[in-house]
Amino acid sequence: MDVISVIRTKRDKGELTPEQIDWVIDAYTRGAVADEQMSALAMAILLNGMNRAEIARWTAAMIASGERMDFSGLARPTADKHSTGGVGDKITLPLAPLVAACGAAVPQLSGRGLGHTGGTLDKLESVPGWRASLSTEEMLRVLDTTGAVVCAAGDGLAPADKKLYALRDVTGTVEAIPLIASSIMSKKIAEGTGSLVLDVKVGSGAFMKTVQDARELASTMVGLGTDHGVRTVALLTDMATPLGLTAGNALEVRESVEVLAGGGPADVVELTLALAREMLDAAGLPDADPEKALAGGAAMDVWRRMIAAQGGDPDAPLPAAREQHVVTAPATGVLTRLDAYDVGVAAWRLGAGRARKEDPVQAGAGVELHAKPGDPVTEGQPLLTLHTDTPDRFAYAAQALATAYDVAAPGTPYERGPVVLE
Length: 422
Ligand code: URA
Fold this sequence. Notes:
Blueprint: H1 3-11, H2 18-30, H3 35-48, H4 52-64, E1 79-83, H5 92-101, E2 106-110, H6 120-124, H7 136-146, E3 148-152, H8 159-169, H9 177-191, E4 195-202, H10 211-227, E5 231-238, E6 246-248, H11 249-260, H12 266-282, H13 290-295, H14 298-309, E7 323-328, E8 333-338, H15 340-352, E9 366-369, E10 376-377, E11 382-388, H16 394-400, E12 405-408
Parallel strand pairs: 1-4, 2-3, 4-5
Antiparallel strand pairs: 6-9, 7-11, 8-10, 8-12, 9-11
The structure holds uracil.
C-alpha cells in the first residue's frame, strides 16, 4: 500500500477501501505516513466526505490504534457525556457528581481547551492542588470510591486520534463531520463506557453552525456508538450565546459550585438536569431523581470527594485575575444578541485559552456576563467584565467583542429559545 494512492482515491471523490483505511491509520500512528501526507488526506476528506461504511471503518481503525479500557468490574453501570465543545460549557463539572450521586459511575476522560472553546481539565486545574493526570489504577480507584472521575485520557487511548486531532487543528480540517464523529467516538468506545450521552452544540460558538449539520453529526455518532454496543443518545443544544454567566477557567468552576449549591444560572441548571436525566436513563437508572440529588446536596458531597480524591482542596479560594475591565451597555433597551463565538475569542485572548497546545492558561482569566439575551439593560451599566493577569490584552479582547452584542429599543419583544433544541 502507498499513501499517495490513498490520498488520490479521496481527492478524486472515491470510496476508501477497508484495507486502505486500516493501513493509513496504522502507518500514520507508527510515523510511516508523514504529517503533510495525512493533512492532504484530511483535507480531501473534509472536501469530499466519507460514507457511513468508511466512517465506521475509520473509527474502528482509530480504536485499534491503542488500548481499550474496561469498566465491567464496577458495581455500578457506567454513564458518560461528551460535548462537542462550546463557550461557557462547564456542564461536566456539576453533571459528573450529580449523576454519580444518583447511582451511576461516571468516567469523564476530558480534554483541554484549544482555540475559542474551553476545556474541562483547564477549568478543574484552577482548583488548588487538583491533578488531571492519573494512572489507570488511580482512575479506577477514584471512580470506585467517589462514583465519578474527571481526568486526562492516557496516551495509550486512541493514539491515532491524538496525532490526527493535533494535525487537524493546525491545518483547517477540524470542521469535517466524518473526522469529528470518528475522533470523538473512537475515544469514547475505547474508554469502555456502557452508555453515552452526546451534547451536540449548535450555533456560532460551536463547530456545527446549523441544526442540519448538527443532526448529521449526532446521527453519525449515535450510529457508531450503537454499532459498538454503547447505548448512545444525542441532544442538540444551543450554543448561539454562552452557557451561564461565565467563560474562563476559575470563573466557570465558581459558577459550577453555585449550581451544586442549589443556585447558579437557569440555563446551566436546565442543561445539567436534562443531560443527567438522559444519562441515568441510558445507564438503566430511570427512577433516579437528579433534581433531588442537586437540591438535597448529595451532588455537592460527591463533588467535594471527587476533587479531594485528585489532590484538590474544595474549600480553597479559587484564583482570581489581577486586573478587570468593564464593558458597558451602549444604550438603554433590550439585549437581543450576545454572540458565543465572540465571547469565546475574547476569553481566549484574555488568557483563558491557548494558541498552541504547550501554552499555559491563566486560571483567573475570562469573561463574566452581567446580562443575557432577553434582559433589559441601561446605558452605561456593566455588560461584561473582562478578567486577566495581563492587562495589555484588554484592547485585543475588546476588539473581539466590538460586534458581539445588539441592544434593541426598550420594550422590543424577545423570546428566549430553549437550551435543548432537539
Ligand atoms: N472533539 C474531539 O474530540 N474531536 C473533534 O474532532 C472535535 C471535537
